[in-house]
Amino acid sequence: MKTHFACHTRLLFSTLAMFGLIATADAQTHIKIDGSSTVFPPTQAAAENFQALKKNAVKITIGIAGTGGGFKKFCRGETDISNASRPILKKEMDECAKNGIKYIELPIAFDALTVVVNPKAKFLNKMTVEELKKIWEPAAQGTITTWKQVNPAWPNTPIKLFGPGTDSGTFDYFTEAIVGKAKSSRTDYNASEDDNVMVQGVSRDVNAIGYFGYAYFLENSKKLKAVSIIQKPGKPAVAPSVNAVLDGTYQPLARPLFIYVSAKADERAEVREFVEYYLNNGEKIVKEVNYIPLSFKDYKHALVNFKTKKTGTAFGGVAEVGVTIAELLRRNPTE
C-alpha cells in the first residue's frame, strides 16, 4: 500500500514539475538576465566562462530588451540580473519598490559612446557637441534635414539618421549628454534596438550618421568612421579610445556600464557565485570583448559593495554625465 502511494506521489510531483506548477531543484540553477544590448557582450562572456567552470550545471540566459525593457522585467521580478547602459531611473526605482524588489548596483565597465558616419563622408571627421545637438534635438525634426543647415561648410545633402530605440540606455545617455535632457530627441530617425541594424544603415549611405557603443564600432571599423568630438569651443577634438576614456578627455560621451542584481536572487548560491566571478575577473572579461575595464581597485570596491549587500543606486534616479566610478562606489545609495 505504501509503495503504491509513493509511486503515485512521485508521478504527481513529476507531472506538476513538468508543467511548471511547482519549483524543482533544477529551476534554481537557471540565472535569468535581460537588458542592454551594449552590456550584453561582457555579460555573455562572463556567463560562458562561468558555465564552463561549472561544467554547465548552471544555465544562464541573456536577453537584449534594452536597458528600459530590461528594468521593466527586473522590477516585476522576472529576471535575476539586469544589464544597463545607464543608471536606474526614478520611475523604475518606484516600480521596483512597489513590487518589493531590492537591488545592488554594480559598475562593470566603461564605454565610449561613439558617433559614426560613412567612411566616404570626407567632409566629416569631427563635430562639436553643439552641432550634434542641432541635429538631434526635438526642434530639429522637419527643420534640420541637410548637412549644410548644421554647418555652412558641409554639403547641401540630406542627413540620414540612425539611432537606438527609446528603450535603450544608449538613447537615454546620448540625449542627456548632447541635448541636455534624457529621452529628448527628434523622432524622425531610423530606430533599432539592434546595433547591427545601425551598422548596416550607416555603412550603406554616405549621408548617414548614427551612434552606439565603442565595441560595436571596433568590430565594424572597416565599414564605419568614428567622429572626433569637440566638447566646447576652443577645446581639441577627441576621438573615442580606451586612453581618452580613462584620462577623462572623451567628454561628454564616456559612460559607465552596469549590472543590477536582485537582492532576492543573490540569496541563491549560483547567482552569488556568478556575480563574484564576474567582478573578480572583470578586467580580463571586459578586455576580451574590447570594452574598457574599471581599475583593479574599483572592481574590488564593487565586490565589497556586493558582498555587504549595499542595495540601491548611487544616482538617486537622476542621470549624471561625467561622474567617476570611484565616486559612485563611495556614495551611500538610495532606494
Keywords:
12 strands, 17% strand, D-Maltodextrin-Binding Protein, domain 2, 335 residues, 2 domains, five-stranded mixed β-sheet, alpha/beta, disordered N terminus, 14 helices
Q: Can you describe this structure?
A:
The protein folds into 2 domains: 2-110 and 256-330, D-Maltodextrin-Binding Protein, domain 2 (3-Layer(aba) Sandwich), CATH 3.40.190.10; 114-246, Periplasmic binding protein-like II (D-Maltodextrin-Binding Protein, domain 2), CATH 3.40.190. The chain contains 14 helices and 12 strands. The model is unreliable at 1-28 (pLDDT under 50). The longest helix is centred in the N-terminal third of the chain and has 17 residues, at 2-18. The chain has 335 residues and is of the alpha/beta class. The strands form 3 sheets. Strands 2-1-3-12-4 form a 5-stranded mixed beta sheet. A 5-stranded mixed beta sheet has the order 8-7-9-5-10, with helices on both faces. A two-stranded parallel ribbon has the order 6-11.
Summary of the model, kept short:
Helices cover 39% and strands 17% of the residues.
- CATH fourth-tier homologous superfamily of the largest domain: Periplasmic binding protein-like II
Shape: globular
Report mean pLDDT, rounded to a whole number.
Answer: 90
> Oligomeric status of the shown chains?
single chain
Instruction: Figure out the total of helices.
Output: 14
CATH architecture of the largest domain: 3-Layer(aba) Sandwich
Unreliable stretches: 1-28
Give a quick account of the main beta sheet: strands, pairing sense, barrel closure. 5 strands, mixed
Ends apart, CA distance between termini: 56 Å
Total beta-strand segments = 12
Q: What class would the helix/strand composition place it in?
A: alpha/beta
Radius of gyration: 22 Å
The percent of residues in helical segments reads 25-40%
CATH class of the largest domain, anyone?
Alpha Beta
Q: What is the N-to-C order of secondary-structure elements (H for helix, E for strand)?
A: HEHEHEHEEEHHEHEHEHEEHEHHHH
Give the tally of structural domains: 2
Widest beta sheet: strand line-up: 2-1-3-12-4
